Amino acid sequence: MDHENTHPGHHKSRLNSQIIAITTTGILLGFLVILQSRSFRGVQDIIGRDTRANVFREIQILKTTNENLNAEIKDLESQLDKASNRQQALNAVQDEIKKDRILAGHVDVEGPGIQITVGKPIAVIWLTDIVNEMWSAGAEAVSVNNIRLTNSTVGFDLLPNGQIALNGVPLTAPYSIGAIGDGKTLNEALNQTQGVLERLRQSVQGVDLTNTLKDKIGMGKVI
Amino acid sequence: MQKFLNWKIQLVFILTGVMVGLLVTTQFKSALPSSSYPYDELQAQQELMKSYSDDQAVLKSRILNLRKQIEIKQTESGQTIEKNNLDILNAIKNEIGLSSEKGDGIEITLNDGLLVKRNNPDVLNQSLVQAADLRDVVNLLFSAQAESVAINDQRIIASTSITSVGNTILVNNFHLLPPFTIIALGDPDTFLQRLHDPAALPDLQKRTKEALIQYAFVAKKNLIVPVYNSDFRLKFLTEANSTK
C-alpha cells in the first residue's frame, strides 16, 4: 500500500505546491506574452514605413506651412498689383511664365541640395518613400537617375522583369536621387532616427547607401 | 471524479495566473506621463494644432482667390498682353496643377477598419490607413498615366508630400481624416487593370482580405479634380546658367 498517495495531509501539501507552481508558471507566461507582443509591435514600428513623429513635429510642420502660405500670398498680392497696372501687366505675365516653366520642368535647373546614391536594386516603395521624405523636407526639385520628377514624369512603375521604370525609362542601380533645396534640412530629415534611410539600411542588407551635400546640383529639362 | 476536480482547479489557477501576469506586466510597462497635467498639455497642443489648421484653411482659400483675381485681371488686360502669352501661361498653369480638371477616371475609397478609433494609442497600425498606403496608391495611379489626382479634394502634384504624424495624415501638409477618397482622371480601363493586379499594392490587398481596413474602387465619369491650393517653393531652385 502506498502511504504517500493516501495520507490526507500529504495529499493537501502536494496539491498546494502544485497550485503554487502552476500559478507562478501562469504569471510568468502572462509576463512573456505581453513582452512578446510589445517587442513584436516594436519590430513592426521599425519595419513600418511611416515615422511616428511626435505632436511637436506636427505643430512645427503646420507652423512652417502657414509661413510658406503667407509668403505665397504676399507674392500673389504683388502679382495682382502688377496685373492691375496695364504697363506692368506684360512683365508680370512674363515673370510668371518664367517661374512656372521652372516648376513644370521646361528648362534646365540648378541649386544646392543633397545627392543620395543607392548601390543595389531596391523595391519601388523605397524610392517612393525617399522621394516623399525629400518633398516633405522642403525639396524644390527632385530627380532620379537624371530624370526630373514633375507632374508629367512622376510615378514609379514595375516592369515584368522586376525592374523599376520612371517615365517609361528602366532604372538600373546604382540609383542616384538628387534634391534641390536646403541641404542641411534635407540631410537631417533623411537621416533622422528611424527615418527612411535608417530603415532602408536595416531592411536591405548591404544596400551601400551614400548621401552627399552639394553646393550645386543640375537637373535637365523634362523631355 | 477527484482527478477531474483537480484538473478543473488547475485550469482555474492557470487562467488566474495568466490574468494576474498580464495585469502586472501591463502595469509594469505603462509609460508615465511626462507632464504633471497631461490632459491640460494635450488639450493645449490640440488647440494650437486646430488653430494652425484653421489658419491654413483661410490662407489656402485666400491663395485660390488671389490666383482667380490675377487671372481675371490678365484676361481684362488682353489687349496689352499678347494673347499668345496668355495661352502659354494657361497651358503651363494647367501642367503644374493650377487649373481644375474634369473627366473620366477612377474613384478609390480607403478607410480604417470597422469600429477602429484613430485616437486610441493602442490601435493596431495594420487596421489604420497609413500615409504609405496613400503614397502607394498615388504612385500606382501616376504610373498608370493619371492626368491628375486628388485625395479628399487636395490636389496631388509631383511635389506633394504624404506623411503621417502620429495617427494623423498630412497631404500637402494639410490634415486629412478618413475615409480617404482618391480621384484620378485618365483611362479607367488601365486603372482597373492595374488595381486588379494581385501583385499591385500587396500589403493593402492583404489587409483588405483580412478585413483590417476597407478598400474599394470604381470607374466613374465626370469626376472633378480641384486646383492645387498650396504654395510653390522657389527659394533655392533657379534656371540653370541664370541669375535669379
Protein model, in words:
The complex is a heterodimer of chains A (223) and B (244). Chain A has 223 residues and is of the alpha+beta class. Chain A has three domains: 3-36; 53-104; 109-223, Alpha-Beta Plaits (2-Layer Sandwich), CATH 3.30.70.1880. Chain A contains seven helices and eight strands; from the N terminus they run ααααβαββββββααβ. Chain A has helices spanning 3-6, 8-47, 55-84, 86-104, 124-136, 183-190, 196-203; strands at residues 109-118, 141-144, 147-148, 156-158, 164-166, 169-171, 175-180, 209-219. In chain A, the strands form two sheets. Chain A has a five-stranded antiparallel β-sheet with strand order 3-2-7-1-8, with helices on one face. Helices cover 45% and strands 20% of the residues of chain B. Chain B has six helices and nine strands; from the N terminus they run H-H-H-E-H-E-E-E-E-E-E-H-H-E-E. Chain B is elongated and about 105 Å long. Classes of the chains: A alpha+beta (223), B alpha+beta (244). The interface between A and B is large, with 98 and 90 residues.
List keywords for this structure.
heterodimer; A: 223 residues; alpha+beta; Alpha-Beta Plaits; 3 domains; five-stranded antiparallel sheet; three-stranded antiparallel sheet; 7 helices; B: 244 residues; 2 domains; elongated
